[in-house]
Automatic annotation (TrEMBL):
A family per Pfam: MarR_2
Entry protein name: Transcriptional regulator, MarR family
Domain of life: Bacteria
PANTHER family tied to this protein: MARR FAMILY REGULATORY PROTEIN, TRANSCRIPTIONAL REGULATOR, MARR FAMILY
Residue intervals of the HTH marR-type domain: 11-147
GO molecular function (one): DNA-binding transcription factor activity
GO biological process: response to stress
Length: 162
């Protein structure tokens, strides 16, 4: 058994700052959405994904994959959103076991009302404090990490420089 490859001081500092930033940003965005639009961050994520596709409809399994949620979590969350009139479920005619989640007019109105305040909060907390070079660096870093995650999930080795 090989010994762990511990993080050095710089890596550990960067990792811990990233974790704190992620937690703080997520908490602030969640509070803003709840306070200003009565949507949870999870509601917003579901609605955003549905507004990104034609007809505002998506297979449940596809949405679960995009959100990185277990199917049971998604099912419970959809039930709560259905009760509030934000989405409906529709059976899939070509697959008796499959279902679609469909954005309702109320769901579209909710996200359209929530989006301006949400994007302003994202801009104020994140992007207003960064230079264009820092935004480009953040994008590049995210691309490298996401590529490594995707390759790791498929068992494909990631080159050291990707």
């Amino acid at each position: 058994m090989t010994s762990p490859r511990w993080l050095d001081a710089d890596e550990q500092r960067a990792w811990r700052r990233f974790l704190r930033m992620q937690a703080e940003l997520t908490a602030r965005l969640a509070r803003q959405l709840q306070t200003e639009s009565d949507l949870s961050l999870a509601d917003f994520e579901v609605l955003v994904n549905l507004t990104d596709v034609p007809e505002g409809r998506m297979r449940v399994t596809e949405l679960a994959k995009l959100l990185q949620w277990e199917k049971s979590r998604l099912s419970h969350h959809f039930s709560r959103m259905e009760k509030r009139g934000l989405v409906v479920r529709e059976n899939c005619p070509s697959d008796a076991r499959g279902a679609f989640v469909v954005l309702t007019p109320e769901g579209r109105s909710a996200i359209e009302a929530a989006a301006p305040g949400h994007v302003e909060t994202v801009r104020r907390l994140m992007f207003d404090g960064l230079t264009s070079e820092q935004v480009a660096a953040l994008t590049a870093i995210a691309n490298v990490v996401l590529t490594r995650i995707e390759r790791d999930a498929t068992g494909e080795p990631a080159p050291a420089d990707v």
